[in-house]
């Protein structure tokens, strides 16, 4: 899986700082040293790494302390925001011409996945944007490329414009655009020739096609597996052609991720799509924010923190945090939390935002449907005040009484009590208070705790 090494290293580093109630300058320096190594190892351009580290440091040290997040969480928030910004910040969408058809020129080196991506993009435009693209086979130097595009076109049931390999690409582009106008295609996707290396002849030809076709978008297809080379290729193409967007292919492979992180920063050209497999529907719009969260293993944890900030009484959260640390979280707190969480939205949606939650120890048996939660609530509400405060007094007759009172079985009650104990242990781990270093894996929780 792509980014695995980087994700693991960053997450390990962040785990160390996450639970900290106080973060010193030295803590940040230590952390940033590890982050720097992790990025360099992932083949991120060294200049990019340097800038990134400097800006995270500055922001992490200079930021105001927010009441609702621990300092450790705030540092993570900064890393996430900067990583997102590095990859372009906002999602960058494919161009739409004011006047149809929108002309898109696909460029790139041989083997990067250009022809495949051209077909994938056509499919995407039709499926997601309800468009009617015309595919154009303008790679006349690799005869197999024309055939390949035609085959893909057939598979998609989409027209492919081709004039064989004896007509110049400029002429092919010209005729294709007239045909698209006549036949009311709203996108023209021109698959141009690739080479093994960048050379002048190739660039000259691409410039001529560009001159004539006046593309609204020039998408450069690069192979993520080639790491820094992909970034260098992007830089050269960009200098010559003013590329408007990058498609990073083969992100499904075990690329270290450097290209995805550096391309925008080095070339100032946004990644617009990523290829996630060989199949025709495995092209996805690139979302910097989601990618950053994925690398940091945070899922939507930041959204969750924001949601919590606006819905949860901050003082109560602090109190709760203290209780969790001291292991005196009771069933009363549990009920209160249940109410608070419910205020945030549907339970499964909220839980779905916590990555790795279902994998966490003691969690996997908990069902996340509201019915199950209703049952749990009934059991808890059937407990006496004393039982809620101190479940350890729960003997057989108390358990039986609770089961009867809540319309459940003794097994249900036993299970809940067991889960509650497991949960308390896990909470303690997640607040970063355990001494068992290296074992805790509450990845992505950012120290934010939910009692489920
Ligand atoms: N795993 C994976 N394979 C991909 C992806 N995109 C393209 N490929 C594969 O990469 C190989 C090269 O793709 P092509 O589309 O033939 O390459 P090209 O860049 O068009 O090559 P030229 O036409 O010679 O310029 C093919 O086997 C594709 O199936 C991707 O996102 N993931």
Automatic annotation (TrEMBL):
<dbReference type="GO" id="GO:0005525">
    <property type="term" value="F:GTP binding"/>
</dbReference>
<dbReference type="InterPro" id="IPR042101">
    <property type="entry name" value="SRP54_N_sf"/>
</dbReference>
<dbReference type="Pfam" id="PF02978">
    <property type="entry name" value="SRP_SPB"/>
</dbReference>
<keyword id="KW-0547">Nucleotide-binding</keyword>
<keyword id="KW-0687">Ribonucleoprotein</keyword>
<dbReference type="InterPro" id="IPR004780">
    <property type="entry name" value="SRP"/>
</dbReference>
<feature type="binding site">
    <location>
        <begin position="249"/>
        <end position="252"/>
    </location>
    <ligand>
        <name>GTP</name>
    </ligand>
</feature>
<dbReference type="InterPro" id="IPR013822">
    <property type="entry name" value="Signal_recog_particl_SRP54_hlx"/>
</dbReference>
<comment type="similarity">
    <text>Belongs to the GTP-binding SRP family. SRP54 subfamily.</text>
</comment>
<dbReference type="GO" id="GO:0006614">
    <property type="term" value="P:SRP-dependent cotranslational protein targeting to membrane"/>
</dbReference>
<keyword id="KW-0342">GTP-binding</keyword>
<dbReference type="GO" id="GO:0008312">
    <property type="term" value="F:7S RNA binding"/>
</dbReference>
<dbReference type="InterPro" id="IPR036891">
    <property type="entry name" value="Signal_recog_part_SRP54_M_sf"/>
</dbReference>
<dbReference type="InterPro" id="IPR003593">
    <property type="entry name" value="AAA+_ATPase"/>
</dbReference>
<dbReference type="GO" id="GO:0003924">
    <property type="term" value="F:GTPase activity"/>
</dbReference>
<keyword id="KW-0963">Cytoplasm</keyword>
<feature type="binding site">
    <location>
        <begin position="108"/>
        <end position="115"/>
    </location>
    <ligand>
        <name>GTP</name>
    </ligand>
</feature>
<dbReference type="GO" id="GO:0048500">
    <property type="term" value="C:signal recognition particle"/>
</dbReference>
<dbReference type="InterPro" id="IPR000897">
    <property type="entry name" value="SRP54_GTPase_dom"/>
</dbReference>
<keyword id="KW-0733">Signal recognition particle</keyword>
<dbReference type="InterPro" id="IPR027417">
    <property type="entry name" value="P-loop_NTPase"/>
</dbReference>
<dbReference type="InterPro" id="IPR022941">
    <property type="entry name" value="SRP54"/>
</dbReference>
<keyword id="KW-0694">RNA-binding</keyword>
<protein>
    <recommendedName>
        <fullName>Signal recognition particle protein</fullName>
        <ecNumber>3.6.5.4</ecNumber>
    </recommendedName>
</protein>
<keyword id="KW-0378">Hydrolase</keyword>
<feature type="region of interest" description="Disordered">
    <location>
        <begin position="430"/>
        <end position="452"/>
    </location>
</feature>
<dbReference type="Pfam" id="PF02881">
    <property type="entry name" value="SRP54_N"/>
</dbReference>
<dbReference type="Pfam" id="PF00448">
    <property type="entry name" value="SRP54"/>
</dbReference>
<feature type="binding site">
    <location>
        <begin position="191"/>
        <end position="195"/>
    </location>
    <ligand>
        <name>GTP</name>
    </ligand>
</feature>
<feature type="domain" description="SRP54-type proteins GTP-binding">
    <location>
        <begin position="270"/>
        <end position="283"/>
    </location>
</feature>
<dbReference type="InterPro" id="IPR004125">
    <property type="entry name" value="Signal_recog_particle_SRP54_M"/>
</dbReference>
<comment type="function">
    <text>Involved in targeting and insertion of nascent membrane proteins into the cytoplasmic membrane. Binds to the hydrophobic signal sequence of the ribosome-nascent chain (RNC) as it emerges from the ribosomes. The SRP-RNC complex is then targeted to the cytoplasmic membrane where it interacts with the SRP receptor FtsY.</text>
</comment>
<comment type="subunit">
    <text>Part of the signal recognition particle protein translocation system, which is composed of SRP and FtsY.</text>
</comment>
């Amino acid at each position: 899986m792509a980014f695995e090494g980087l994700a693991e290293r960053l997450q390990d580093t962040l785990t160390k700082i996450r639970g900290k109630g106080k973060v010193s300058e030295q803590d940040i320096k230590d952390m940033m040293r590890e982050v720097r190594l992790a990025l360099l190892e992932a083949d991120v351009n060294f200049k990019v790494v340097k800038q990134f580290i400097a800006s995270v440091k500055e922001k992490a040290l200079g930021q105001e302390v927010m009441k609702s997040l621990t300092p450790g969480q705030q540092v993570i928030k900064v890393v996430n925001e900067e990583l997102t910004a590095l990859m372009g910040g906002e999602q960058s969408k494919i161009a739409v011409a004011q006047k149809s058809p929108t002309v898109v020129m696909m460029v790139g080196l041989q083997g990067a996945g250009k022809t495949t991506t051209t077909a994938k993009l056509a499919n995407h435009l039709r499926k997601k944007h309800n468009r009617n693209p015309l595919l154009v086979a303008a790679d006349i130097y690799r005869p197999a490329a024309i055939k390949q595009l035609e085959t893909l076109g057939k598979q998609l049931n989409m027209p492919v414009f081709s004039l064989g390999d004896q007509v110049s690409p400029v002429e092919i582009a010209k005729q294709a655009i007239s045909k698209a106008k006549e036949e009311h295609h709203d996108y023209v996707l021109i698959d141009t020739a690739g080479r093994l290396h960048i050379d002048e002849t190739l660039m000259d030809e691409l410039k001529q096609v560009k001159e004539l076709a006046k593309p609204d978008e020039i998408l450069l297809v690069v192979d993520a597996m080639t790491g820094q080379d992909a970034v260098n290729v992007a830089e050269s193409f960009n200098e010559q052609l003013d590329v408007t967007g990058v498609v990073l292919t083969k992100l499904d492979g075990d690329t270290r991720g450097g290209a995805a992180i550096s391309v925008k920063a080095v070339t100032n050209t946004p990644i617009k799509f990523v290829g996630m497999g060989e199949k025709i529907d495995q092209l996805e719009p690139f979302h910097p924010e989601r990618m950053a969260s994925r690398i940091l293993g945070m899922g939507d944890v930041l959204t969750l923190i924001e949601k919590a900030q606006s819905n949860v009484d901050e003082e109560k959260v602090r109190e709760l945090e203290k209780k969790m640390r001291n292991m005196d979280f009771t069933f009363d707190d549990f009920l209160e939390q249940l109410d608070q969480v419910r205020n945030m939205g549907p339970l499964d949606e909220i839980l779905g935002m916590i990555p790795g939650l279902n994998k966490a120890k003691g969690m996997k048996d908990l069902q996340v449907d509201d019915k199950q939660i209703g049952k749990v609530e009934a059991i808890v509400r059937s407990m006496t005040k004393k039982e809620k405060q101190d479940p350890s007094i729960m003997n057989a007759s108390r358990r039986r009484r609770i089961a009867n009172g809540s319309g459940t079985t003794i097994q249900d009650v036993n299970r809940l009590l067991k889960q509650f104990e497991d949960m308390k242990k896990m909470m303690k781990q997640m607040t970063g208070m355990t001494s068992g270093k290296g074992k805790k894996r509450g990845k992505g929780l950012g120290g934010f705790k939910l009692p489920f």
